Automatic annotation (TrEMBL):
Allosteric enzyme that catalyzes the rate-limiting step in glycogen catabolism, the phosphorolytic cleavage of glycogen to produce glucose-1-phosphate, and plays a central role in maintaining cellular and organismal glucose homeostasis. Phosphorylase is an important allosteric enzyme in carbohydrate metabolism. Enzymes from different sources differ in their regulatory mechanisms and in their natural substrates. However, all known phosphorylases share catalytic and structural properties. NCBIfam families: P_ylase (TIGR02093). Its EC number is 2.4.1.1. It holds the Pfam family Phosphorylase. The keyword Transferase applies. PANTHER family: GLYCOGEN PHOSPHORYLASE, GLYCOGEN PHOSPHORYLASE, LIVER FORM. This is Alpha-1,4 glucan phosphorylase. Its cofactor is pyridoxal 5'-phosphate.
C-alpha cells in the first residue's frame, strides 16, 4: 500500500548523524547544547531501533506470507546484557555509527558504558536463552521468545567489609529505548477461584474456571536482530498490570484510595527476578510468576494461530514450544485447558496436540533445584490445572500399568504426584509426560539424565530423550568481546567464519606460525591491560598485565568448587612465603551468591579476606594477586573472558550440566583446567587432550568414592602441604574479622566436604603445576591456545539451534532477503 510506504532510512554516516540529532530533539526532547551523555545514549538507541523495527516488519510479513512453522521459546530468564553495541554490530552499522557520533562530538565508548545490563536471568540458563534468540534471528528461524519483564533484574552485588551485599537492580530507571510497549496486546490471567463442571451430551465433561482474581499481562516487545541485517525476531516480555476493574469492589464501597492502592498488589507479579539458580524456593509468588507468563504467552500463541486462520487441530503443525527447564512446565496443563475448555476439543485429541507441541530442556540433576509444588497450593492457586494434572497422571499411569503390569513401585516413582513429601506436583514429570522430546545440554548430562533422574521414564519412552549440547554466540563472545582476536583471524582466513564457525578450522594451521602466535600474545596483552584497568576502577587494586590470568567466573556454588581454587591460592601463597620460585599470576574470581545461600556467601567472604592478606603481603612481591571482581554480569564477562589465560572449570564431576563459560573462554584462547564434567568432555575431544588440563575424579569415581564414605580429613594424611593450608584457614591466619567463618569453612571441608574438594586437591594442584610449566614456554602455550580457538567451532550456538530445529522442532529457516 503506497500510503504506508516508509521514508527511507539511510545507514551511512550523514544519514545516521541526522537520525541521532533528530531523535535527541524529537524523542528524547533535549536541546543538543544541554544534552547529557545519557541523552545521547538514548538518542542513538532510538535512531538505531527505527532501523531494527523496520526489518522486523519485513520479517514478520514474510513469515505470514510463507506459512512458516514457528518456534516459541518459553523462558523465565533472559540474560541479555547491554543492547546498543550488540544491535549495532548485528545491524552491520557499528563503525558507521561510531563515525556519526564522532561527527556530533560524542564518544561512543563513553555513552555505551552508561547502558544498564538487561540482567533478567541468573546465569547459564538465562544466557543460553539470549544466545538462542540471537542465533534464531541470524539463521532465519521463525523464533519467538517469551518471558517476564521484571521491573528489577538480578541484584547488583556490592562487596562491603569483604561480604556480598545485594542492591536492587532498578534497570528501567531511565526508561528503556529498546522496548516497544504494546498496550493493545493485553491478556487476562486468572488465579484462585473454583471449577464448575458441565456434563455435555457427547459424554465429555467441560469445565468453567470461575471467580478468583484477574491480573492483566501487557506485552513489551524487544526486537532481536540477526547478524548482518538478517532477520529480526521478537522477544515478548510480559508485565503485570492491574485489571481495569481492579477497583470495582472497593469503589462500590466508596473506598477509592484503597482501590487504587490495591492495584500495586497484582503488579508485584512481574516485580522481581528470583535470584536463586539451584534451590527451588516454593513461594506462591514464584508459582504465580510462572503461570502468569505461561498463560499470557499461550493466549498470544493461540491468538496468532487463529488470526492466521489455521484450524486449531493443526496447532502442532504450525508451532513448536520449547520449555526452558520446568519453570514454564505449567504450560502443558494450560495448553490442555485452552484446548478442552475454550476450544471444546476432546481429551485424546487435545493430548496428542499438546505432546506434539511441547519439548523440554533439562538443565540440572540436582534434587534441590527440581521444582515441586504442594498439591494444596496448586489446588488453591490453579484449581483447574490441578484437575487437568490429575487426569494427565491418571491416563499416563493407566498406560504404563498396561505395558508393565504389576510394577507398583515403578508406577509410584513415575507418578506426577510425589506422595512421600506431603503430596507435591513434580514439574519435571509433567514436562516429560507432556513433551515429545526431552533434552539434556551436554553428552554426559544427557546420559546421566537417562541413568538417574529419568531412568524410569527412559524405560517407558527411550526415544524421547536426546542430547543437544549447548553453544554460545560467536557474535557476542568473539567478535564483540575480542576485536583484536577477530582481526587476527580475519587477516589469516577471511571473515566467513562469522556465520559458519566450522570455517574457523582453517585457522588451525596458523597455530604453528610464529608470527601468528606473536600477534596472538599481543592481542592477549592488550585484553589484559583492558581488564587490569577495569579491575583497578572497580576494586582499587593494581594488577600486572604481563602474568598468567587465571579466572573462575560463574555463580558461587559448592559444586562449582570455588574453594578448590581458593586452596590453590593459599598453596601458592605459602610456597612464595617459603621462598619457592612460583610462576607469577593473577587469580580472578567473579560471581554472585543467591542471597539466601549462606554457604556461598561465606565463600565470597573468605575469598575476599584471603585476597586481602595475599595482596598486601610484601613477601608476594607482585607474584600473586587475588581479585574478587564485584558484580559479575554479561558486560563484565565480555572484558574478563578475552583476557584470560587459564579457564577454571573444576566442578565435581557429574554436577555441572554443561557450562557455557567454559566454551566462551576456550574460543578466546584460554586453556581449560577442568574435570571430566558437563561439556568439558566434549571440549577435550574437540581441542585435543594435549591442549587442556584434565584432572580429578570422573563422575563414576565420584559416586564410588561417596559410597566408600572416607572421612574428608583423611586426605590430609598423605598431603602435609594441604594440611598446613587447611590449618592456616582453620586458625584464622587469613581472617579479618571473620575468624569463626574461616574456622567454619575449614570444619566444613574436614568433616563434610560434600563435593570432594579435599579428595580432588592433589590432582588439581598437579594439574595447575602442569599448566604453569606449559605457560613458561610461551610458544608452546600460544600454540595450544590458538588450537583451542580454531577447534571450538562445534560450540557455536548456531549448531545447537540447528540441532533443535532439525531433531526437535521440525522447523525450517526462512531467511529474509537483505535490504538493497
Ligand atoms: C527453580 C529455580 C530455583 C531455578 C532457577 C534457575 C533453578 C535453576 C536455575 C538455573 C539453572 C542454570 O542456570 N543452569 C545452568 O544451565 C546452563 C545452560 O544449560 C548450563 O550450562 C549449566 O551447567 C547449568 O548449571
Amino acid at each position: 500500500n503506497p500510503r504506508h510506504r516508509l521514508s527511507p532510512l539511510t545507514c551511512d554516516a550523514p544519514g545516521l548523524r541526522q537520525s541521532i540529532r533528530d531523535a535527541l530533539v524529537r524523542v528524547v526532547g533535549k536541546d543538543p547544547d544541554l544534552a547529557t551523555p545519557r541523552d545521547w545514549l538514548h538518542a542513538v538507541s532510538f535512531a538505531i531501533r527505527e532501523r531494527i523495527i523496520e526489518r522486523r516488519v519485513v520479517t514478520r510479513r514474510q513469515f505470514a506470507e510463507e506459512d512458516v512453522k514457528r518456534v516459541y521459546y518459553l523462558s523465565m530468564e533472559y540474560l541479555i546484557g547491554r543492547m546498543l553495541e550488540a544491535n549495532l554490530r548485528n545491524m552491520g552499522i557499528f563503525e558507521v555509527t561510531q563515525q556519526a557520533l564522532q561527527d556530533l562530538g560524542v564518544d561512543f565508548r563513553e555513552i555505551a558504558r552508561l547502558e544498564e545490563d538487561a540482567a533478567l536471568g541468573n546465569g547459564g540458563l538465562g544466557r543460553l536463552a539470549a544466545c538462542i534468540l540471537e542465533s534464531m534471528a541470524t539463521q532465519g528461524y521463525p523464533g519467538y521468545g517469551y518471558g517476564i519483564r521484571y521491573e528489577y533484574g538480578m541484584f547488583q552485588q556490592h562487596i562491603e567489609h569483604f561480604r556480598q551485599v545485594e542492591h536492587p537492580d532498578n534497570w528501567l530507571r531511565y526508561g528503556n529505548p529498546w522496548e516497544f510497549p504494546r498496550p493493545e496486546k493485553t491478556f487476562p490471567v486468572r488465579f484462585y477461584g473454583y471449577v464448575v463442571e458441565h456434563h455435555r451430551p457427547d459424554g465429555e465433561t467441560s469445565c468453567n474456571w470461575e471467580n478468583g482474581e484477574e491480573v492483566l499481562a501487557m506485552a513489551y516487545d524487544y526486537p532481536t536482530a540477526g547478524y548482518e541485517r538478517r532477520n529480526v525476531n521478537n522477544l515478548r516480555l510480559w508485565a503485570a498490570k492491574a485489571t481495569r476493574d481492579f477497583d470495582l469492589r472497593y469503589f462500590n464501597e466508596g473506598d477509592y484510595i484503597r482501590a487504587v492502592a490495591d492495584k500495586n498488589e497484582s503488579e508485584t507479579i512481574s516485580m522481581v527476578l528470583y535470584p536463586n539458580d539451584a534451590t527451588a524456593i516454593g513461594k506462591e509468588l514464584r508459582l504465580k510468576q510462572e503461570y502468569f507468563f505461561v498463560s499470557a504467552s499461550l493466549q498470544d500463541i493461540f491468538d496468532r494461530h487463529r488470526q492466521l486462520e489455521y484450524p486449531i487441530e493443526e496447532l502442532a503443525d504450525k508451532a513448536a514450544i520449547q520449555l526452558n527447564d520446568t519453570h514454564p512446565a505449567i504450560a502443558v496443563a494450560e495448553c490442555m485447558r485452552l484446548l478442552l475448555d475454550e476450544h471444546r476439543i476432546p481429551w485424546d485429541q487435545a493430548w496428542t496436540i499438546t505432546q506434539n507441541l511441547f519439548s523440554y530442556t533439562n538443565h540440572t540433576l540436582m534434587p534441590e533445584a527440581l521444582e515441586t509444588w504442594p498439591v494444596a497450593l496448586m489446588e488453591r492457586v490453579l484449581p483447574r490445572h490441578m484437575g487437568i494434572i490429575y487426569r494427565i497422571n491418571h491416563e499416563f499411569i493407566e498406560e504404563v500399568r498396561h505395558r508393565f503390569p504389576g510394577e507398583h513401585e515403578f508406577f509410584r516413582r513415575l507418578s506426577i504426584i510425589d506422595e512421600e513429601h506431603g503430596r507435591r506436583v513434580r514439574m519435571a514429570h509433567l514436562a516429560v509426560i507432556g513433551s515429545h522430546r526431552v533434552n539434556g545440554v551436554a553428552a554426559l548430562h544427557t546420559s546421566l539424565l537417562k541413568q538417574t533422574l529419568f531412568a524410569d521414564f527412559s524405560r517407558v519412552w527411550p526415544e524421547r530423550f536426546v542430547n543437544v549440547t549447548n553453544g554460545v554466540t560467536p557474535r557476542l563472545w568473539m567478535i564483540q568481546a575480542n576485536p583484536g582476536l577477530t582481526e587476527l583471524i580475519d587477516s589469516r582466513i577471511g571473515s566467513d567464519w562469522k556465520f559458519d564457525l566450522d570455517r574457523l578450522k582453517q585457522f588451525a594451521p596458523y597455530a604453528s606460525d610464529e608470527a601468528t602466535r606473536e600477534a596472538f600474545r599481543a592481542v592477549k596483552l592488550r585484553n589484559k591491560e583492558r581488564l587490569a584497568a577495569l579491575v583497578h576502577k572497580r576494586t582499587g587494586l593494581a594488577i600486572r598485565p604481563d602474568v598468567m590470568y587465571d579466572v573462575q567466573i560463574k555463580r558461587i556454588h559448592e559444586y562449582k568448587r570455588q574453594l578448590l581454587k581458593l586452596l590453590h591460592v593459599i598453596e601458592l601463597y605459602q610456597r612464595i612465603r617459603d621462598g619457592e620460585d612460583v610462576l607469577p599470576r593473577v587469580v580472578l574470581f567473579a560471581g554472585k551468591a543467591a542471597p539466601g545461600y549462606q554457604r556461598a556467601k561465606d565463600i565470597i567472604a573468605v575469598i575476599n579476606e584471603v585476597a586481602d592478606i595475599v595482596n598486601h603481603d610484601p613477601a608476594m612481591g607482585d607474584r600473586l594477586k587475588c581479585v574478587f571482581f564485584p558484580n559479575y554480569e554479561v558486560s563484565s564477562a565480555t572484558i574478563i573472558i578475552p583476557a584470560a589465560d587459564l579457564s577454571e572449570q573444576i566442578s565435581t564431576a557429574g554436577f555441572e550440566a554443561s557450562g557455557t563459560g567454559n566454551m566462551k573462554l576456550a574460543m578466546n584462547g584460554a586453556l581449560t583446567i577442568g574435570t571430566l564434567d558437563g561439556a568439558n568432555i566434549e571440549i577435550r575431544d574437540a581441542v585435543g587432550t594435549e591442549n587442556i588440563f584434565i584432572f580429578g575424579m570422573t563422575a563414576d569415581r565420584v559416586s564410588a568414592h561417596r559410597a566408600q564414605g572416607i572421612p574428608p580429613g583423611a586426605h590430609l594424611d598423605s598431603h602435609p602441604r594441604l594440611r598446613s593450608m587447611v590449618e592456616a584457614l582453620r586458625d584464622g591466619f587469613f581472617s579479618n574479622g571473620g575468624r569463626h567463618l574461616h574456622a567454619e569453612i575449614a570444619r566444613y571441608l574436614l568433616e563434610e566436604d560434600p563435593f570432594f574438594v579435599l579428595a580432588d586437591y592433589a590432582a588439581y594442584s598437579d594439574a595447575c603445576a602442569q599448566a604453569d610449566r606449559l605457560y613458561q614456554d610461551a610458544e608452546a602455550w600460544s600454540e595450544a591456545a590458538l588450537l583451542n580457538v580454531a577447534r571450538m567451532s562445534h560450540f557455536s550456538i548456531d549448531r545447537t539451534v540447528r540441532e533443535y530445529a532439525e531433531n526437535i522442532w521440525n522447523v525450517l529457516p526462512e531467511p529474509v532477503p537483505p535490504p538493497c
